[in-house]
Amino acid sequence: MRKIQYDSMSSVFLSMKNTFLALCLLFSFMVSAQKEKPMNYRRFDERTLHFGFMLGFNKANFVAFPVIDAYEQYGLKSLVAKSQAGGQVGIVTSLKLGTPVVRLRFLPSLSFQERALQYTFANPDPTKKDIFKEERVNSTNLDFPLMFQFRTTRLNNFATYLLCGGQYTIDLQSQEKATQNFIDPFIKIKKFDMSGQIGGGVEFFAPYFKFGIELKYAHSFYNSFIQDLTPVSKPIDKLYNQVWWVSFIFEG
């Protein structure tokens, strides 16, 4: 079981690598295709501090690790985490660090996330099909990402950038301290989490504002799972949060 999950993580990081390689190729093509044009919002890089807002959507998931002997103890044949769609809204604060191409960005936001865990248990009756069960975990998060932004110099009204940093998250919907319902048990995850983030994006300068589109990936540093010995939690060893973010950012 563990080997399957580690292979899953390897495929995630391979997918990330391929995504960013494709983005770099796309950015290079767009830059090479640019011709000299009148520059919009010329004074943007002269200001130290900028504010704006963000809207976007996300795909949240778990990296799930079952216990080593889950099949022998609980008859668990597979544990699969399925990503679900969500959304986010936030406020942007961007600080120039002495040079226009390096900025520090703080983007407190409210995000809505959902993850699904699908269990397949072996049926003790060999004449019947395996037992399938699904548990969904919903979160309403206050996210506090602090990111370094490394931007290219402007080419006319276009620029690209890379992001790296970390995020502190408070799950307002967490049932960490809720009384468990042993008739219809639910998955408990921790209220607080910390994750690392990497990403990239493109920026377009309009006459009076800047519009950006960015893609980010976040993976938690710590195990978020709370073991409370219910039938749905016993086969699980660890759960790590992971999220893909697509954001549309307006700065003035």
Structure description:
The chain is mainly beta and 252 residues long. It has one domain (2-251): Porin (Beta Barrel). It is 14% helix and 56% strand. The chain contains two helices and eleven strands, in the order αβαββββββββββ. The chain has helices at residues 2-32, 70-74; strands at residues 49-66, 76-99, 102-106, 109-121, 131-151, 158-171, 188-189, 192-205, 210-220, 225-226, 236-251. The strands form two sheets. Strands 1, 2, 3, 4, 5, 6, 8, 9 and 11 form a nine-stranded antiparallel beta sheet that branches. Strands 7-10 form a two-stranded antiparallel ribbon. The chain starts with a helix and ends with a strand. Mean pLDDT is 86; it is low at 1-12.
Short overview:
This protein is mainly beta and 252 residues long. The chain contains two helices and eleven strands, in the order αβαββββββββββ.
Q: How would you summarize the topology of this molecule?
A:
Elements lengths: L1 H31 L16 E18 L3 H5 L1 E24 L2 E5 L2 E13 L9 E21 L6 E14 L16 E2 L2 E14 L4 E11 L4 E2 L9 E16 L1
Antiparallel strand pairs: 1-2, 1-11, 2-3, 2-4, 3-5, 4-5, 5-6, 6-8, 7-10, 8-9, 9-11
